[in-house]
Amino acid sequence: MGLRKASASERVFEVFNIVALTLLSLAFLVPFLAILSTSFVSTEESMRRGAFILIPEKLDFGAYDMLLNRGMIIFNAYKVTLFRVTVGTFLNLLFTATLAYGLARRTLPGRNAIVSFIFLTMIFSGGLIPSYMLIDKLGLKDSLWVLVVPGLISAWNLFIMRNFFQALPEELEESAIIDGAGPARILWSIVVPLSMPAIATIGLFYAVGHWNEWFGASIYINDQSKLPIQVIMRNILLTGVIQDETQVEYIRDPPPAAALKSAVIIISTLPILFVYPFIQKYFVKGIMVGSIKG
Amino acid sequence: MFGKKAGAVTAALLTAVALTACSGGNGNNPAPTATESGGPTKELPKIYIYQNTGALNQKPEGSVPEKLEEMKQHYMDTLGIEPIAIVPPTGSAEEKLNLMLGSSDEVDTFQGNWDDYASKGAIIPLNDLLDQYGQDIKKAWPEEAWEYMTDKDGKIWGIPRGEPSVHYPIWVRSDWLKKLNLEMPQNLEELEAVMKAFKEQDPDGNGKDDTIPMMTDLNGIKNALMGGFLQDGNSNWIDPADNKLKPAELAPGFKDFMATMADWYQKGYIYKESFSKFDPLELLKTNRVGMSSMWYSRITLLFPQIKPSLPEGAEYEIIRGIEGPKGKLMTASPGSTASMVITKKAKHPDAVMKFINHQYQDIPTNSLTAAFGKDWRYTGDNKFDIELTTPDITYAGEYMVSLGTATELKYAFNDPVKKMHADYLTKEALNLEVAKMPIDSTIIYDKDALAENIPTNSDIDRLRSEELVKFVTGARPISEFDGYIEQLYQAGLDQWIEEYTRQYNEKKK
Amino acid sequence: MEALNAEVSESPAELRAVGRRRLWPAIKMHRFYYLLILPGILYFLVFDYIPMFGIIIAFKDISPFQGVDAILTGEWVGLKHFERFWNSYYFWNVMQNTLLISGYKLIFGFPASILLALLLNELRNAAFKRIVQTISYLPHFISTVVVAGLVMMLLSTDGGLINNLIVAFGGESYHFLGSPGYFRSILVISHVWQTIGWGSILYLAAMSGIDPGLYEAARMDGANRFRQAWHITLPGIAPVIAIMLILSIGGLLSAGFESVLLLYSPSVYGVADIIDTYVYREGLTNLNYSFATAVGLFKNVLAMVLILGANYVSKKMNQSGIW
Asked: Transmembrane stretches, by residue range (chain A) (predicted)?
């Protein structure tokens, strides 16, 4: 591996790469840090200085105090979100992977028809009203399962995963079939381990999707104790933003302070960020190599 | 290797499911006292309130569950009615409402424009219910307010929320006027002179040419200034030549109005970002705003909050008695059809009416209880001044169904921060004499017919907003004004005029 | 890897030919596969195809709260809503804005994610790589509402960072958000900022699946970094790029409703009013649900055409696509 020494241009590139990526990281990090530090600003200071403050004069936990001491509301909301992220993602992966694998099999009769069938659902939709009625009839309204079942398979993720499966060499499956293994067995013992990067990625997409999702929850759930954290947070965040004051005649209260809004953002974002490091190890190179040669 | 992974995954799942089971339990069984207290064994009628009145703005995440139960129990004990509140999602409240109305969900009352719902059969007329159970409501609102709730057949469709009011006074930094030895302007020339002085003489004394003489927006210039140039103000008008109802753009004086605004903008008297999205709070904080002609609450709600960090003596006052060549500058806001309504599928409409009526009894006590629960009290013995007993309110107001001028003007917070807003509501908002009233203010236009007969209605709206802004900001020269009118006709102004005239003649009283 | 793909792609055609002649045996042979995909198909049937009947709302005059019966029994109005949209004064303006805004977002945003993935892939220090990667998708978690707030703050004519810099260099502060010339760029830049990191995740995952042996072989042959990237990495992730591109092209008619709504104003309607904001304003004056559904259907049909076109081109170019 170290047989060639890096040429001058390559070294220059490496330096340039590091510098560029560092600058880019700053562009991503600074706004986020601004939000983080704004969440620690006291109301008094917030009234004096601008909206987003990079370095607060003193740390004030008022915003977090207000949010986290709400007792059951926030705690329940986190539990609901945790439920949908874990159970939801697991079910997502289960159903998506099985469907993707089945449709990756090139010899499957009617494959293209089925793919088109699914594909059409990505383009055409009846809209909110019929979906709402369906959910109503199915009895899913106001139930935690409405957070998990209606979005069970995302056609987008399905096609991406199928794409990954299709890229796997067929010899592996062939030999397993010859040995008499059924598709479920092949999927579980051979395909999944080899596709860990893909599965981990799609799993991450689903998990983050669940974490961020708020619209369906807000529409289908009335019971406050069953709302995920994003809905609660968004209610706070949006107060006074989109509404046109001439439509709402009586605003008795000014919008929530910047500190509160920032704290809301931090609370609803930070936890999911910690998931990524755990997924990282599945992206390691070379996981596939050994098995083919073997 | 897979055994371990499967094991880990299963463990995580089981934990999650277990937690959910627990939370499900907790969520459904709050403070045991509430549900087990010895109440009558007969079922109390339940009413479902879709809480989109704005009462929740004070605490958007909703009440602390125990407090909500307390309030619910309070109403069950007092009225024998069980209120159930549905908290709408901010930003998609109307979508959810419409979905719930169209499905099997229970929704008994909500706030909306009754004319949107009445013709489609979603709500019921309230005449009988008001007579039987709503006497206090009827007394609380004046005749003018009820006019906006009544259709041509005499059916009352909603409980009013507001009355015609004035919302666009011009506020000016009175301390700056004193500092620069200026009097309150009484006409447009003086107004311009004040703005010029603000711009050139650096009243905030920071040595920089950054003073903003006037902060405003599109609705601001229309409602706070147009009146001085047009006979009818920001209103449709009748063209004496053909007796047709036409939009303000065609009225005499409109071009002068636009030319003056463009002139002021170009001279830097009007804030550069007025016609795009900006944050008024941030702007006010910088101590550079000399005047504001925006919706009144921009000043009344925001200024008291930041006042402590502004220099000593900073104060905004309303400019009174100012007139232009054609008269008063301000145009009033006519009453709207926004109201509390009762749905057709309400199982106990009488209970709903009783519940709402209760909040109009003993004004403002019952209404305040509905809004703040137990966290408030009178500070004097005049049943007017109140204060919150805790800055951290625990009940968000889910059962408040009486938000409107009839109740909101009957009390005022003792809190200096809220005083300016309360003063405006109680002393200024209903002074209609200071402004011009649009000539078709009492007319409730049939929106379906408008959409049917003016297919390009929203295009015309966009054209009017977009071009007015372009003219004022100088993106389009005033000389092209006639070309603009041409465009309006191309976009279907003829149909607009025909339809509006037709409805106006039909409905005017 | 390409060689393997080539081999495989010949047999499906063969097998399909066989399958056609002997359909029943083929189905029986694959019965476990059908069992495997059955739940997924049922899911789509129930949750996507059943609600699809709602599309007929576009051809009727329905209010959102009139219930199922109204939808099924309401009177047909044919193409009335579509015509209203096509004949509106601003139809072309709105279409143009939509396609331009999402077009720019695609042209700049799509390669940006790939480029970022390539750059990250070249990093040797694993810790630095992980840190940069994690930071790069922070923006994805900042909701559009907040991003809009940040943008307004950044571009404010007084006190905004950008204008402060301009003034410091001797210029005059400029009203960006109200300027038709800059508005689209603002939308695109904030979009790229928000999506570049998250978008690169998929490509990085794909890159980790490339056989390191190929790189070794290339290095033996004297290829430097750039050639390795060009000849191994890119082709290695080509199928992923293709499918992401096709799917993104399908989204060209939705140009980011929320971010436009939060930032636009009458001064920039001419360049920023997109189909969705136009319909949204329409819905504010009248509860015109049928109109919104009709326009939505129109968008969907156009998206369909675009995707079919993109898929066709993609298959011609490197034999991968959705079908």
From this structure: 12-36, 82-101, 113-132, 144-165, 186-208, 258-279
Asked if B276 lies within 8 A of C177 by C-beta distance, the reply is: yes
Residue C304 lies in a domain: no
For residues A215 and B89, what is the distance between their CA atoms, to the nearest angstrom?
8
* Pair (B313, B444) in one structural domain: yes
Q: Are B468 and B258 in contact (CB under 8 A)?
A: yes
List the one residue out of C269, C260, C295 whose CA is nearest residue C83: C295
> Nearest CA of chain C to the CA of B279: how many Å?
8
In a domain, B258, yes or no: yes
Among residues B401, B431, B454, the one where a domain terminates is: B401
- Rg (C-alpha) for chain A, rounded Å, is 25
Least trusted range by pLDDT, from A79-88, A187-196, B323-332, C224-233: A187-196
C247 to each of C110, C207, C244, how far by Cα in Å?
11, 20, 5
Could you tell me which chains touch chain C, where touching means 3 or more CB pairs under 8 A?
A, B
Choose from A47, A238, A267, A278 for mutation: most chain B CBs within 10 A: A47
DSSP code per residue over B202-240: -TT-SSSS--EEEE--HHHHHHHTGGGTSTT-SS-EEET
Q: Which residue of B has its CA nearest to C183?
A: B276
Under 8 Å between Cβ of B54 and B88: no
**Radius of gyration, alpha carbons of chain B:** 27
pTM of the entire predicted model: 0.86
Q: Which residues of C touch B (CB under 8 A)?
A: 63-67, 84, 87-90, 148, 152-153, 156-159, 175, 177-178, 180, 262-270, 273, 278, 281-282, 285-289
Give the number of domains in chain C: 1
Cα C252 to the center of its chain, rounded Å: 7
**Across-strand partners of B46?**
B82
Residues B145 and B184 in one domain: no
**Per-residue pLDDT tens over the stretch C4-27:** 333 333 455 555 555 456 678 878
Nearest to C19 by CA among A108, B160, B465: A108
User: In terms of residue numbers, what domain contains B99?
Assistant: 37-163+335-401
- The average confidence (pLDDT) of chain A is 82
For chain A, the domains span 8-63, 70-238
Total domains in chain B come to 2
Q: Which residue of C has its CA nearest to A280?
A: C130
Average pLDDT, stretch B85-104? 88
Contact C243 A163 (CB under 8 A): yes
CATH class, A70-238 region: mainly alpha
Are B283 and B375 contained in the same domain?
Answer: no
**Residue B35, pLDDT above cutoff 60:** no
Query: ipTM score of the complex?
Result: 0.85
In a domain, B488, yes or no: yes
Contact present, C71 and C56 (Cβ < 8 Å): yes
Domain boundary among B378, B401, B424: B401
Which positions in chain C touch B99 (Cβ < 8 Å)? Answer: 64-65
pLDDT of residue A292: 37
Whether A3 shows a pLDDT value over 70: the answer reads no
C197: nearest Cα among C126, C139, C111, C128: C139
Q: Return d(Cα B304, Cα A250) in angstroms, integer.
A: 18
Q: Angle at CA B89, nearest 5°, toward B84 and B92?
A: 125
Name the closest residue on chain C to residue B455, using Cα atoms: C84
Chain A residue with CA closest to B103: the answer is A133
Mean pLDDT score of chain B, rounded to an integer?
A: 87
Q: How far is CA B21 from CA A214, A283, B380, B453, in A?
A: 21, 34, 49, 56
Which helix (H) or strand (E) segment holds residue B49: the answer is: strand B46-50
Is the domain of B465 the same as that of B370?
no
Task: Find chain B residues with C-beta within 8 A of A245's C-beta.
Answer: 295, 297
Contact A27 C193 (CB under 8 A): yes
Same-domain status, B383 and B476: no
